[in-house]
């Protein structure tokens, strides 16, 4: 943690059970002022539960949850007056119009009437909802609803924002737009806790990433640190003959190469397009037939594999080489 | 695009809630309830036009066959008014269930507001909606021959009793709205309420009913309420009905409001 930054969101040893199911088993995380932490984890890991606790919606069994120095349990009102929450499912009023929704939320944040109206109009324009402003929300598409929901969280310009899987289910264009908004909020000094299932998203936006699995934070660091554990992108080359594969390997002489003898696939760690070209050039003079080629980015699965593979090490900091059923060359 | 820079809104600072906020929260929630009422065409149509249809049906179709001494219209209008009020109030259940089962309640709970004002919005909107509908039905009744004999003071009393009845029915439906897990279940409750007035003195005197029904009709809360309203408007004898009516309303409210408040608190704290 860099000195001089205040910790704005802090969860210490959070425990939460629903009936007898233990959902959070000691979650620790901190978010510094003006930065974004991505809470990365698969379905059911406890992301929503964590966000709901930190945003005062859910009581918990043990531990401590502080936002801006206020206890979310005992000082919920103080916390609520400075946070914006965009839940996993849009929470907007279906019977009201988009405009009415925003004005209502603005007034419930205790903006003046005129200010709430001005801000509502502004946000509708920024989120490309002007045409639908006077329509009941029940006629909105899923993407429009999401945007309105986010706009509602921003109406009072809260300094702290929780975003629970804001891009899940969005088409690529809407996802890009959402990322632009988030980047914008960060540039404006907002502190953000975002949850996601996509490593790519965490990588794009977050200062730090915490990986959550089965109610526990299993890794924490910058996106680069995490990716360092899984390696970078991988280039996969497929061959039709085992002899081709062997010749190719001889030329590549690559220690990161992983070989799947059954599928006749070689996979290499690469860094960027130039690197890909260099590898392919190396194969230029060798009489082998490459039947297929693909580039894959490390996924959440890779991170998990890497992290759970190295958890036995003392503090999880050891490097670990992924080898999912692939034998190292 | 920038979501921050155009605005001159100051970033909020952490504050505990103030009383003046609760007042403004309540105003916003009431405004929301009123907009819902106007937006929700089906419910509005049902709670105004159904009673009007029933009024016309009873007066023109059954009226000739039912002999209650005075003109049947003068007998049946107080019953129709209560039916209208009760049914309209019962639609509150669906609104409450919708709020509790869609994401909107989480939005409200994440805001620095007194969350119970959500329910207040429904209750006040229901009062306004049903007093309006009652007035409309009454106006039509007068247009087709209803001739109340009430003094101004009787009118005040009658309106007060009807308002109390609406308040009670509204809270009963708030409770069912909080219990129901789906909007369909909540609207089932609405239909149940719709049938209660039939087994009361609303449309026919209870002594014309078979013994078992008669017993129920005599002792269910709607009968003394109707007898009180009828007495005030038409000068028929009220007897003990007025205090039995008040007692019923007060007793039901005393049970239903705390239960609703408990349900609301536990549903919003999990
Ligand atoms: N209200 C609840 N009652 C019982 N179990 C729940 C409840 N909410 C969540 N869970 C369980 O808790 C676990 C974590 O859920 P959640 O925090 O929603 O995960 P995520 O958001 O990471 O997908 C899941 O196994 C889920 O089934
Ligand atoms: Mg979730």
TrEMBL record, chain B:
GO biological processes: response to antibiotic
InterPro entries, alphabetized: ABC2_TM (IPR013525), ABC2_TM_bact-type (IPR047817), ABC_2_transport (IPR000412), Nod_factor_ABC_transporter (IPR051784)
Gene Ontology CC terms, in alphabetical order: ATP-binding cassette (ABC) transporter complex
ABC transmembrane type-2 domain mapped to chain residues: 42-267
Recorded topology in the membrane: Multi-pass membrane protein
Record keywords: Antibiotic resistance, Cell membrane, Membrane, Transmembrane, Transmembrane helix, Transport
Residues that span the membrane, as ranges: 43-66, 72-97, 118-144, 156-179, 186-204, 242-264
UniProt-annotated location(s): Cell membrane; Membrane
Any one GO MF annotation of this record: ABC-type transporter activity
PROSITE patterns the UniProt entry points to: ABC_TM2
Similarity comment text for this entry: Belongs to the ABC-2 integral membrane protein family.
Protein name per the record: Transport permease protein
């Amino acid at each position: 943690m860099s000195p001089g930054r205040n910790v704005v969101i802090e969860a210490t040893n959070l425990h939460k059970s629903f009936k007898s199911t233990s959902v959070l088993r000691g979650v620790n995380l901190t978010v510094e002022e003006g930065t974004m932490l991505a809470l990365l984890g698969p379905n059911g890991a406890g992301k929503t539960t964590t966000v709901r606790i930190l945003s005062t919606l859910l009581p918990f069994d043990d531990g401590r949850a502080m936002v801006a120095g206020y206890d979310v349990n005992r000082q919920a009102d103080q916390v609520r007056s400075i946070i914006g929450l965009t839940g996993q499912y849009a929470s907007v009023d279906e019977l009201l119009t988009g405009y009415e929704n925003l004005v209502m939320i603005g007034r419930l944040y205790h903006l003046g009437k005129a200010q709430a109206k001005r801000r509502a109009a502004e946000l509708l324009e920024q989120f490309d909802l002007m045409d639908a402003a006077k329509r009941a929300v029940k006629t909105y598409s899923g993407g429009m609803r999401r945007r309105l929901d986010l706009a509602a969280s921003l109406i009072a310009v809260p300094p702290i924002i929780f975003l629970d899987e804001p891009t899940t289910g969005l088409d690529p264009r809407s996802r890009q737009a959402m990322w632009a908004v988030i980047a914008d909020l960060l540039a404006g000094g907002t502190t953000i806790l975002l949850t996601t299932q996509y490593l790519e998203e965490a990588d794009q936006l977050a200062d730090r990433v915490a990986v959550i699995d089965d109610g526990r934070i299993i890794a924490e660091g910058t996106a680069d640190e995490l990716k360092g554990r899984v390696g970078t992108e991988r280039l996969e080359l497929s061959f039709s003959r085992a002899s081709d594969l062997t010749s190719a390997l001889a030329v590549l002489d690559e220690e990161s190469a992983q070989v799947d003898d059954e599928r006749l696939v070689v996979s290499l760690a690469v860094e960027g397009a130039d690197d890909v070209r260099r590898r392919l050039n190396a194969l230029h003079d060798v009489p082998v037939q490459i039947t297929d080629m693909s580039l894959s980015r490390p996924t959440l699965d890779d991170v998990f594999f890497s992290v759970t593979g190295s958890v036995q090490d003392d503090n999880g900091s050891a490097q670990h080489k992924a080898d999912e059923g692939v034998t190292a060359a | 695009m920038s979501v921050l820079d155009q605005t001159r809104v100051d970033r909020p600072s952490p504050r505990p809630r103030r009383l003046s906020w609760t007042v403004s929260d309540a105003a916003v929630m009431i405004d929301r309830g009123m907009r819902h009422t106007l937006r929700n065409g089906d419910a509005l149509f049902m709670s105004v036009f159904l009673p009007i249809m029933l009024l016309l049906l009873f007066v023109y179709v059954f009226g000739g066959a039912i002999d209650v001494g005075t003109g049947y219209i003068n007998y049946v209008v107080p019953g129709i008014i209560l039916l209208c009020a009760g049914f309209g109030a019962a639609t509150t259940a669906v609104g409450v269930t919708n709020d509790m089962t869609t994401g909107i309640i989480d939005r409200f709970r994440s805001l620095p507001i007194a969350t119970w004002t959500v329910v207040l919005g429904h209750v006040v909107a229901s009062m306004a909606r049903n007093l309006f509908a009652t007035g409309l039905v009454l106006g039509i009744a007068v247009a087709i021959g209803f001739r109340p004999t009430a003094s101004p003071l009787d009118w005040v009393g009658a309106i007060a009793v009807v308002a109390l009845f609406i308040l009670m029915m509204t809270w009963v439906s708030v409770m069912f709205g909080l219990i129901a897990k789906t909007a369909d279940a909540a609207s089932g409750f609405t239909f149940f309420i719709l049938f209660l007035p039939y087994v009361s003195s609303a449309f026919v005197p209870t002594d014309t009913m078979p013994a078992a029904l008669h017993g129920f009709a005599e002792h269910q809360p709607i009968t003394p309420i109707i007898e009180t309203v009828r007495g005030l408007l038409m000068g028929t004898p009220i007897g003990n009905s007025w205090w039995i009516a008040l007692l019923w309303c007060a007793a039901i409210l005393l049970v239903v409001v705390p239960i609703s408040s408990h349900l609301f608190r536990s549903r919003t704290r999990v």
